[in-house]
Amino acid sequence: MNIAIAQSGGPTAAINASLLGVFRAARKSCDVERIFGSRNGIEGIINENLVDLQQIIATEEDEELLKQTPAAFLGSCRYKLADVDKDTSAYEKIIACFEKHGIGAFFYIGGNDSMDTVAKLSEYMKKENKSIKVIGVPKTIDNDLVHTDHTPGFGSAAKYLAVTLSEIARDISVYDTDAVTVVEIMGRHAGWLAASSVVLRENGDTMPHLIYLPECSFSLQKFLSDVREKLKTNRSVLAVVAEGVGEKKRANTASDGFGHGQIAGIGKYLEEAIKSEIGCKVRSIELNIMQRCSAHLTSVCDIEEAEMIGASGFAAAMMGETGKMMTFVRTSDEPYQITVGTVDAKDVANKEKTFPEKWIAESGNDVLPDAIPYFLPLIKGERPMIVKNGIPLHFILK
To answer: Same structural domain for residues 79 and 188?
Structure first.
């Protein structure tokens, strides 16, 4: 049989390692003849926009370049399949594409919205008595998928954040004047990434002084009070704020295909408030997509696990599994140990795993050190890069 692989949702620095994991496992299998890649997620299947990955990823150097390339090599989408009882037209096109190209297994690398596609598609296959297997391979820097200890992509994003915040901390400490720096971090409803900034303290840093997560209620006046209190003992105050903090007060009417609101920047909002109410020097920094595309700072742990879970997804399909998402099960923090499991994709789809309340300070403006053993293993290890003219090379699909 042949197989197809697609990528969906927000890219990460590890999503291509998962693609490579499926690809390498399939290439070694005597059961697989051709390996197709779908351009722009499930839309590539619907529109029959496929590429032959064996012709494109032809050498070991191609594979290594792919592993160090950020974002989705095959392109992405945010396409929501309609409920089967409302519209089956897209499903019919998908099955037609699969059958035309002899595709017996489909691997969708994505987040909780992508698992909605995996769940719906696998159920439709069963309803239509089709033997095509559908497997979800997780990814998201938000680390908000339920039923898995963590997600590929998160560790590298957390590593980038830790390194960048450490450097920001040094920069803002050089002047002997009161100043506040607010760093806005991705995380609409789940504050895992912002919370991971607590790891700086494991290296003896006192920053960030304040960490705000969307899991906690937020008051502007309380925030300003927190900043004033920190300025009593620190010339430079560093506050990390997840983008979803205070979302309801700042949301506009725009939304994506899955109904997620596009929200205004909390960093700039707080910068203006500090400037107006406290009057000290203040700046806001929005790291934006750098958090998910900075492949030069990937974690070895993250990249290796991303490839491993992709390969495990292929193995699961070959064992007859379908409608599943692959998961990580942590068995130990020290030494760090995990196993790979599966869960029904329908139990992951459209759900979010928020940061545990037990790791949030009672004050609601900090993360407890108890969370550090969870984060540390995920950011460890530095990968050597293939470089040309001082710039890391990327593998780009023409």
So the answer is: no
